Amino acid sequence: MGIFRRGPRRDASDVPRDPEFGFFSNDEGARFRAVVREAFAELGLEVTVYADMVKDSGGRQFGLGNLAAVCHNEPRGPRVWPELIRKHVAMVLRTMDAPSALETMPPEQIRAQLYPRVISGDGLDAQSFGYARSVAPGLYEILALDLPESVMMLTDEALEPLGKVPDLREQALRNLRELPVEGHETVKGDDGMRFDIVVGDSFYTASRVLALEAVVRQVTGREVPPEGALVAMPFRHQLAFHVIRDSGMVLALNAMASFAASGYEDTPGSISPYVYWWRGGTLTQLSDRDGEGLRIVVGEDFGELLERLVDEETDGF
């Protein structure tokens, strides 16, 4: 999995764009939805196709956003869309029609497959996920059950028979810390800029920011100092970090801001386009976007840290 991804060359960017998924042209969007409808029909389910979802006669809705992003980012282009879409639809229907894992799995197995996930608050149902913990502005931690073909995000109702939320969260964090690092890449610049990226197919790769100390230890063999680290989670399969040890973090901050913003666009499982300061498990947002593009927002505490690091380096000469 590459760290910087670009969609394959398809219809030119100056042709009319799909109103729902702007990374598609109008023709590509129509082709994508037609294949989705055909895939459901082949499995015996007629659906009504809308711009961002399909609905069956029983009222079940199936969102298209992530699947559209997967097709958009597929390097082989539209020729393999039918294959991707049919596999996805088959998996979705198997999951929907199967008995609930919460009813068939023993409690100890559920706890062994429980993980915390960091997700965007966009579309999060506050009534169903009242236990969700805010980890940064617009980002929340929920608990999820990892299944062979899907991830089940657990609601208040689903968690109730499993135990107390703090105990379940601690078990989920233990499971998260034990995950292997699937892939690691280091981004370096000629000016000395450097940051690390953990990548993987796991849906919990980005969520490992919740166990950052364990990840840094696995990747670098060193501990996170009291100054903390810069982190970015553009989408669910990437976690970028730069451990703060000197004023070189300024170069990393600027590079990671661009990295996070570009990695967030048009990706399945997008989380955040921003960079954060991780310190003792707390996340403070450092980058933002406005009409003029990216900007760095440095609060008093982070400014004092930067000033101290610069002074220490100046005193050393």
From TrEMBL:
It comes from the Bacteria. This is Uncharacterized protein. It comes from Streptomyces violascens.
